[in-house]
Amino acid sequence: MTGWQQVLPLGAGASLPRWVADARLAQLAWSRLAEPEDLEARRFVGHRGPSAALERLASPAPVSAAECFEGESVERLRRGLARWASRWDQTDPERDLDRLHALGGRVVLPGDAEWPDGLALLDGDEPFALWVRGPLDLAAACERSIAVVGARAATAYGERIASQLGIGLGDAGATTISGAALGIDGAAHRGALASGGPTVAVLACGVDRAYPPSHAALLRALCEEGLVVSELPPGSSPMKRRFLQRNRLIAAAAGATVVVEAGWRSGALSTANRAQMIGKPIGAVPGPITSPSSEGCHRLLRREAVCITDASEALQLLKITRADPERPVPARPHDGLSDLAGRVLDAVPLLDPRSAQSIVGAAGLPLEEVRAGLEDLVMHGLVVPEGGGWRRAPLEEPPTGRGQ
Length: 404
Fold this sequence. Notes:
- By secondary structure, the chain is α/β, with parallel strands linked by helices.
- 42% of the residues lie in helices and 10% in strands.
- Helix 15 (339-347) packs across helix 16 (356-363).
């Protein structure tokens, strides 16, 4: 008996729960069975459909090469089945829905009218479902929106600018999207609420959790006047790897991303990097050149970010299109990267080298896959080894045309 068969969710002869046959409930079940970074689960469900995927998960039949999708191996699929089966006892989408409905919430699935269009840009990395609280229409709120993100350990300057951006965007009828974290996120949400403008918080835990605890009042206000959203079902705890995955949703749902304050290792940079990878415009707020809290912003400004000093400039980002037919978009070094290489690149720091083992934790990938991704990135000239670790290679600046 294989490791997967030892953790089969059902005993011999047991019947499947009734929710397995319901496509919507089955889709919700997968949001608990698989972690947000589990691309293999997304391929597995996409290949079979949510109900059939659950039936296969509960089946004791040996894995065969014929049922493996492109690029998959029997052993890898077997490990995936074991990983998902280990959470079967925790999975009951009807119970999760009851908890959500008791809070006045709802679920939004791919294909629903409320599903944000921007999530399609994640191209295989879309969430299984979105668990939502709040009175606004999610798709409508995301149509004209700016992600305002930054450091938790923000300065007074950073919080003031974030609040002003939230107020200015709200006054213009645009939505402020952020992560409800301490520092910049909270200031941006409060500014939007103060102006009466729409604002959306995307969490790295269940929408029934007040995290951080000091933002309990803010989250209540967001549930009453804005939106609180998560791809994780009720009761899910915040974990480090879930914040990185949450950032991809912020980047994709928003029309553009503005980083207000960020040090070299700020998680806000992962939001900007993901936005850039999917073709969304990014901006950054300049700060004092002596402030470590603005070092990440200044690095972005030296690359492709637009300098942002107020809400009107942030809104100008929405006029930057992904492809201008009159001026073709030049090829970028990361165009054509595999999903694996892209995920590894997200976890590689801009400046300070990080070991492969450290990248494993940041990317949520096995060591062998991280090493394969690093090899690919080195070949593309995007990552360089340094001091026993890895960091991003400096990007070449585009020619300015001066002196010609």
